[in-house]
Description:
- There is one protein chain.
- The chain is of the alpha/beta class.
- It is 42% helix and 16% strand.
- The strands form four sheets. Strands 1-9-8-5-4-2-3 form a seven-stranded mixed sheet, with helices on both faces. The chain has a three-stranded antiparallel sheet with strand order 7-6-12, with no helix packed on it.
- β10 and β11 (225-229) form a beta hairpin.
- α2 (34-47) packs parallel to α8 (240-272), α3 packs across α7 (207-216) and α9 packs across α11 (361-374).
- Bound molecules: pyridoxal-5'-phosphate.
- The site of pyridoxal-5'-phosphate has 15 residues, from α3.
Amino acid sequence: xxxxxxxxxxxxxxxxxxxxxxxxxxxxxxxxxxxxxxxxxxxxxxxxxxxxxxxxxxxxxxxxxxxxxxxxxxxxxxxxxxxxxxxxxxxxxxxxxxxxxxxxxxxxxxxxxxxxxxxxxxxxxxxxxxxxxxxxxxxxxxxxxxxxxxxxxxxxxxxxxxxxxxxxxxxxxxxxxxxxxxxxxxxxxxxxxxxxxxxxxxxxxxxxxxxxxxxxxxxxxxxxxxxxxxxxxxxxxxxxxxxxxxxxxxxxxxxxxxxxxxxxxxxxxxxxxxxxxxxxxxxxxxxxxxxxxxxxxxxxxxxxxxxxxxxxxxxxxxxxxxxxxxxxxxxxxxxxxxxxxxxxxxxxxxxxxxxxxxxxxxxxxxxxxxxxxxx
Length: 375
Ligand SMILES: *Cc1c(COP(=O)(O)O)cnc(C)c1O
């Protein structure tokens, strides 16, 4: 068994994927071109956005967003304490300072009250300018935007949605990727929509930001083309091969994979109800279940479960063992009074089970049995 079996997906989509790859190879048009344009159009329509700009990876997508929004030295960028480093790392590259906020104990997403406390603490200190909030749809489960948006508005902060884990999910009838002034996603192979290498995308409704990001991702090109450089930018583009692979995968995600993820999660939920803390998906939300994470009652039990899984050769992961504020790279930063009780508790008790649309019921039962053996 694999933690995420990409081979099963390839076997299911092989004719379309092989044909798409073959046609790019024959065209010898490897960067940009028709498949990239077609993909951007479909991604924008799928997410419900006016513009989609593809790029090299999800980290670059965030960096392009931060650059386009003019985030830099002296700015504070707020971010949940439970996420992958890439949510805020590119802002640090630009000289901004990350300020972490605790999570809510049910969805493990950004806590709006902690966000507000941290904004007030930064304002009270007077050293940094509160500038932006990166809301992450952690594990594929949408953040509570109705609670976070008013805090951003009250303090004049720009909201960025990091939808790297949640592509295909939705919140109150709106797809992820549609929240914030800018949203980003990643096509890293094991994300809900993954390509065969690195890839990412930025989403916005603002034509000015669209224009700016399209310049920033090609060395700051100007109206005169790529040798008319008018600003410092990146070289961050999606390969035509990746776009060609993503198109049939996007169709599969829409047609069957999101439903299949829900079905796996539902079976796991039933099996573990009352025994472990199962994922909480709020009314009106649909999770992309990038990960299926459970919480054990305490660290000792979590560790006993995962060592038993290891013995049974059932793959598991811990997303994430360390909250952002405690990472070696960030732990010297001021924490503005936040103690992160929920983030610390989450890391101490979480573990994730195999989860992908092609996980067969027999395999699910094997996973369930192994976990229940310990309980
Ligand atoms: C994967 C991920 C990213 C970065 O994406 P890459 O394509 O790997 O650069 C950013 N944020 C979150 C929350 C992620 O999970």
